[in-house]
């Protein structure tokens, strides 16, 4: 189908919930047993206070520092109400005391493969997003275990203020805007289009995104707009002059037939008025004669 990708790594969560919901629900089995298993559990913050105390007591001072560093980093950086000033102070202290740890801290992942960047983007906490990006250390194309990059999560945000859009554009320029989600193969553009995020669609188009990319079902961004009735977005896509309206999905449907099937007459009219669509339609008819 041409519907937007609604599944995450657990095949039930929506992509915009991926970073937050996975962190709460998913658990990665500890490898090995004994001290190794305890260490894995502690790093993910899963031990109860008594067990944690016992674990820390058995660790070397250096390892104790790393475990606390891990837990504090996600507490400071990855909450809905995380403050940029606090995150900045934390990073400054790490940089002053152990500068070699800074890249490690910025790109730390939890049990669900989410970095602080995944969380801050998912929470639309753009001041923290900017702070992380400005370090120049963020691995912006990291896929979490649901199969989404920070760029894909950004496509789902409702960024509208000039400051937020500027940070979003900074992220898009640093990341791969054409990367595909692991499960359905959707791009950031398809996600933004399906969810009606006009501002994000405009940003992605300005970054030279591939408008003709197809997901695992063969759907394009234009087909997504046609199915969901996003007339303004369909117009934006067509105005790029790069849309191939003759592309078909695995069911043999074009964007026009998708719009007709969904009874979105405004988009049907828009597509029929598009010169490229008319040319493709005429060519197809001529080939049958």
UniProtKB/TrEMBL annotation:
GO biological process: negative regulation of actin filament polymerization
Alphabetized PROSITE patterns for the sequence: ANK_REP_REGION, ANK_REPEAT
Keywords: ANK repeat, Coiled coil, Phosphoprotein, Repeat
Gene Ontology CC entries for this record: cytoplasm; cytoskeleton
Cited InterPro entries: Ankyrin_rpt, Ankyrin_rpt-contain_sf, KANK1-4
Comp. bias regions, Basic and acidic residues: 9-27
Name of this chain's protein: Uncharacterized protein
């Amino acid at each position: 189908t041409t519907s937007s990708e609604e599944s995450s790594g657990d095949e039930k969560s929506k992509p915009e919930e991926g970073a937050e919901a996975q962190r709460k629900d998913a658990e990665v089995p500890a490898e090995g047993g004994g001290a190794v298993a305890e260490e894995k559990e502690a790093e993910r913050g899963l031990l109860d206070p008594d067990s944690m105390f016992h674990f820390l007591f058995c660790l070397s001072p250096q390892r104790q520092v790393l475990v606390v560093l891990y837990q504090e980093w996600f507490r400071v950086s990855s909450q809905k109400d995380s403050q940029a000033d606090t995150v900045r102070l934390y990073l400054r202290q790490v940089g002053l005391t152990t500068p070699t740890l800074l890249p490690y801290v910025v790109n730390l992942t939890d049990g669900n493969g989410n970095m602080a960047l995944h969380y801050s983007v998912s929470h639309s906490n753009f001041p923290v997003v900017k702070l992380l990006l400005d370090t120049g250390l963020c691995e912006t194309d990291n896929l979490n275990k649901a199969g989404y990059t920070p760029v894909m999560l950004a496509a789902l945000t409702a960024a509208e203020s000039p400051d937020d859009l500027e940070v979003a554009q900074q992220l898009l320029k640093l990341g791969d805007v054409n990367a595909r989600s692991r499960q359905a193969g959707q791009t950031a553009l398809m996600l933004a289009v399906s969810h009606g995020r006009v501002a994000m669609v405009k940003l992605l188009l300005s970054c030279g995104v591939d408008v003709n990319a197809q997901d695992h079902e063969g759907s394009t961004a234009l087909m997504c707009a046609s199915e969901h009735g996003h007339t303004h977005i369909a117009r934006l896509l067509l105005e790029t002059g790069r849309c191939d309206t003759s592309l078909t999905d695995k069911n043999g449907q074009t964007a026009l037939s998708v719009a007709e099937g969904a009874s979105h007459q405004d988009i049907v009219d828009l597509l029929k008025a598009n010169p490229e669509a008319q040319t493709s339609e005429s060519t197809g008819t001529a080939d049958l004669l």
